[in-house]
From TrEMBL:
Keyword Transcription: yes
UniProt domain Response regulatory: residue ranges: 3-121
InterPro entries per UniProt: CheY-like_superfamily (IPR011006), NreC/VraR/RcsB-like_REC (IPR058245), Sig_transdc_resp-reg_C-effctor (IPR016032), Sig_transdc_resp-reg_receiver (IPR001789), Tscrpt_reg_LuxR_C (IPR000792), WalR-like (IPR039420)
Regions annotated as coiled coil: none
Protein source organism: Prauserella oleivorans
Protein's UniProt name: Response regulator
The UniProt record lists the keyword Membrane: no
UniProt keyword terms in alphabetical order: DNA-binding, Phosphoprotein, Transcription, Transcription regulation
Domain of life of the source: Bacteria
Modified residues (4-aspartylphosphate): D54
Family annotation (PANTHER family): TRANSCRIPTIONAL REGULATORY PROTEIN NARL-RELATED, TWO-COMPONENT RESPONSE REGULATOR
Residues in HTH luxR-type domain copies: 148-213
């Protein structure tokens, strides 16, 4: 069972999401929060698989709540998916930097919401390659001066190559085709990179690659 905490200051929004999610046999909404502080408390209390987190809430907002959840070692298995009104905005960048596993627009179709919850529950980032390419094209322009990260020194040359392809928006299958690998091997490389760099998922790999200057906008094609 995939356990979900809903965090949104609008009761009607929470009710709508709950109705969709609770209608599935493999998903259960275990708690609701009207603000960031409550979301953090409920995440610690219930240890859900996913927190669906609105950004703009009174008191501690979703950005601060996301950072606190991600920073809490006791909540290592909890993934945060940001709910936003717009696909690309400053709040999304802040949330991804803060450790969110992806984002959803609030008017997403029910089938897409359910797919997203299941994708993130499997430990994958909610950034489809097409969305990643658009996101990082915008994101790259906001990184004024990339700073090389010493964490990248832990990677082999092959792993650096794979990370570059992840950051340019390629899926595991596309990486496998590009490097003439099996999809399983490509997936293994990505998993090892995340372990070495101490990041939770693909979204954080994209952020790290751009902020460290490994990838630049011209590489997108």
């Amino acid at each position: 069972m995939i356990r979900v905490v809903l965090a949104d200051d609008q009761a009607l929004v929470r009710a709508g999401f709950r109705s969709i999610l609770d209608g599935e046999d493999d998903i259960s909404v275990v708690a609701e929060a009207p603000d960031g502080d409550t979301a953090v408390r409920l995440a610690r209390e219930h240890r859900p698989d996913i927190v669906l987190m609105d950004i703009q809430m009174p008191g501690s907002d979703g950005l601060e709540a996301t950072r606190r959840i991600v920073a809490d070692e006791r909540l290592d298995g909890v993934r945060v998916v940001v709910l936003t009104t717009y696909e690309i905005d400053d709040y999304v960048y802040g949330a991804l930097r803060g450790g969110a596993s992806g984002f959803l627009v609030k008017d997403t179709e029910p089938a897409d919401l359910l797919r997203a919850v299941r994708v993130v529950a499997r430990g994958e980032a909610l950034l489809a390659p097409s969305v990643t390419r658009r996101l990082i094209a915008e994101f790259a322009g906001r990184v004024a001066r990339p700073e090389p990260s010493p964490r990248l020194n832990a990677l082999t040359e092959r792993e650096r190559e794979v990370l570059t392809l992840v950051a340019t928006g390629l899926s595991n299958d596309e990486i496998a085709d590009r490097l003439v690998l099996s999809p399983t091997t490509a997936k293994t490389h990505v998993s090892r990179i995340m372990t070495k760099l101490r990041v939770r998922d693909r979204a954080q790999l994209v952020v790290l690659a751009y902020e460290s200057g490994m990838v630049t906008p011209g590489w997108l094609g």
